[in-house]
Amino acid sequence: MSEPRTPAVADPVVVPAGTTAADAVAAAGLPATGPGAIVVVRDPEGQLRDLDWVPEVDTPVEPVRLDSPDGLNVLRHSTAHVLAQAVQDVFPEAKLGIGPPIENGFYYDFAVDRPFQPEDLATLEKRMQEIIRSGQRFRRRRFESLEEARRELADEPFKLELIEIKGAGVDGGGAGLDADEVMEVGAGELTIYDNLDAETGKVCWSDLCRGPHLPNTRLIGAFKLMRSAAAYWRGNERNPQLQRVYGTAWPTRDALKAYLRLLEEAARRDHRKLGRDLDLFSFPDELGSGLPVFHPKGGVIKREMEDYVRRRHIEEGFQYVGTPHVSKQGLFETSGHLPYYAETMFPPMELEGSAYYLKAMNCPMHNLIYKSRGRSYRELPLRLFEFGSVYRYEKSGVVHGLTRVRGFAQDDSHSYVTPEQAPDEIRHLLTFILGLLRDFGLEDFYIELSTRDPRSDKFIGSDEEWETATEVLERVARETGLELVPDPGGAAYYGPKISVQARDAIGRTWQMSTIQYDFNQPARFGLEYQAPDGSRQRPVMIHSAKFGSIERFLGVLTEHYAGAFPAWLAPVQVVGIPIREEHTTHLESFVAALRAEGIRAEVDTSDDRMQKKIRTAQQQKIPFMALAGDADVEAGAISFRYRDGSQRNGVPFAEAVAHVVEVVRSRTNSGPSAGPGAAEPA
Predict the structure, then answer these.
(1) Do 255 and 329 have their domain in common?
(2) pLDDT tens profile 163-178
(3) In the predicted structure, residue 136 carries a pLDDT above the cut 90
(4) Which of 171, 186, 230, 268 fits as disulfide partner to 210, beta carbons 3.0 to 4.6 Å?
């Protein structure tokens, strides 16, 4: 999930040699205040620079607005520094960890004598407001040597550890550091940021940091500290436990209020809570973290999804296959997943002198099916599909409900094609995916193109192969007319990918389906086909997952619909509610007629009064409530109360059956309603 994207649009500006970026931005007449304020610039190499940066030669730069994605990251990281300053003002004994920007906010880790309490966060917010109003300036300062950094940071043990890991190579990289830690020390030179008093220029506080930062604290329009939690230093349970404070920051108070309202609505839609309230699924501790179980009602939705996607794959030319949950280690070495994915795979089991792994992906086994006999070009495209159960060892802090689990089923498919067939196959798959998502009620998309980082050794294959694969994916993605967003470095080791990002009912973005172009695994497995001229040629392998994972897709749908699933997906589609006990037989006949048509219907025969039964049905978000009283029984009719609260009385029995059947079989994603053409609100 992520916030809506805000484009960073500004004409290039040339910064003359020997002058600051701030002077050039001001000379260009660009704003210095408000959400459109220019807060940093991007140099020709793509590096973000502070506004007090002075180039040695005339340099064209791209101004970056405060309300752009990069600008928001700078805002939030700067707010994290203000938080850390406030913590050390209020708790002088506190030692600093790291404080990166994260999605929609920031955090900072501290070693303190006791856990933070809610009243502490209120005190810290007050002190932060004072710092922000004072208009302190952020100033970047470079350490001339590692020894200089050691001396200045002698009282900050965690900062010292980071610079020691970086090592004497202040001109080297950040080997051994994760991305958030590199933000602290940088991947090249070693720098620190001073917070300066706006009037006197005196240093108020300092922090080891790569930057960049806002020009001054007054550009922090609005913020809020959200919560505190325990966190191990560098994510390792063997390290000291720190206190992590989470916050959010926005350019304006209105933007902050809108985000807090979004959080309230997201909490109402939280699939973990709805899964419990609607008796859909659970996460038993006895099984272990990230291993969900589906209850009967959740199983209905899961089965409907599986039946749908199985039928659609067959209609699209796929053949259903099945593969085991475990494999010998050598298979994943051949595919290349070991060692690249070893950290996300469960540890191996030693059996009969061999190491076996729970599979984390299905593609190696599909390659074995392809390789089981000779193949001709006449068989291509060869499309294989299965509901493959896979297991990935996600870190405990990453596991989240159904949307990030350790055991899940992928609607995984692999298309084996000639290189010439690849563009058409990708078009076919992308059309299939967008149609599937729309069938489930998701309508708002953009596409992300994940490419390799040429500086990384994580990727295998030649430059020419990567260029060809990337060009094909980009061309087909652009043909859809959807927005295409770059994701540099986000590709799998074996090839680039496009992913469909879908926005839900409240505007949050979720990564859904993926298509990956793979020229590496066919080579590693020695896959071939006989070409028309009799030669042996190598196919291209196209990976695709339509749901991504059934569990994640169900979690997203639960939140998209706030648990009020369309009638065709609802676990219980109709509940009969008699006004008095003697009306039960009439409703049982109605339910029997519905069941004969394949409708999931039942009669509430509990001892509760009618109004309580209606409330229960509403809480369970059942689309149709079929009511019957004396008049209905006498007329051979049914009265409907719909989930949106509207009502339709005295519907003849046969017409009532046909009405329910028509709504369910239409697979409409709008709820039934008594209003003409009315659509039920999400």
Answers:
(1) no
(2) 988 764 434 444 455 6
(3) yes
(4) 186
